[in-house]
Amino acid sequence: MNGLQLITYNPFLRQKGEARPQYRTPEVEPLGPGFPHPLVRTHPSSGKPLLFLSARTEVELVGVAPEEGAALIARLRAHVTQDRFRYEHRWQVGDIVYWDNQATLHSRTAFAETERRVLKRVSLAGSRPF
Q1: What CATH number has the domain bearing residue 69?
Q2: Which has the closest alpha carbon to 10: 62, 49, 57?
Q3: At 76, is the secondary structure helix, strand, or coil?
Q4: pTM here?
């Protein structure tokens, strides 16, 4: 997998309710530009390889046949979303949760519209992907 380039497309360019493909094939017109990046990168602190892949965005492997690329991405997503890698926080007032954004998939679950949520993002440090 080293050397493979992935294009991740902006999911927010698709209209609400419109199908959001998980893998872009030739018959799916991209809605915006694509910028290739390594599928596998090296974590700048630990030196360990990590996947630069989200769980549900529209992607495409550069120079790989669509069927082969879609199958590989599906296998990788099935691997990284296993329950053994999952942490679900049970929120309480005053909680602060932080994670390594370079190596962690994260999302939220639905919540009642009547609930008030205040989220603030703080970046402690950053690095260039490599």
Answers
A1: 3.60.130.10
A2: 57
A3: helix
A4: 0.81
- The span from the CA of 32 to the CA of 21, in Å, is 14
Main-chain phi, psi angles of 69, to 5 degrees: -65, -45
How far CA 18 is from CA of 9, 58, 68, 108, 116, in Å, comes to 15, 13, 25, 21, 28
3-state secondary structure 26-42: CCCCCCCCCCCEECEEE
User: Along the 130 residues of the chain, how does pLDDT read in single tens digits?
Assistant: 679 999 988 877 777 877 778 888 888 887 788 889 999 998 888 889 999 998 888 899 999 999 999 999 999 999 999 999 999 998 888 888 888 888 888 888 888 888 887 777 777 766 665 5
Sheet with strand 37-38: strands edge to edge: 37-38, 5-8, 59-61
Please identify which residue in the block is written with the tokens 């296993």.
Answer: 82
Determine the structural domain holding residue 112 and report its residue range. Answer: 1-130
C-alpha distances (whole Å) from 22 to each of 12, 19, 36, 71, 76 are 13, 9, 16, 11, 12
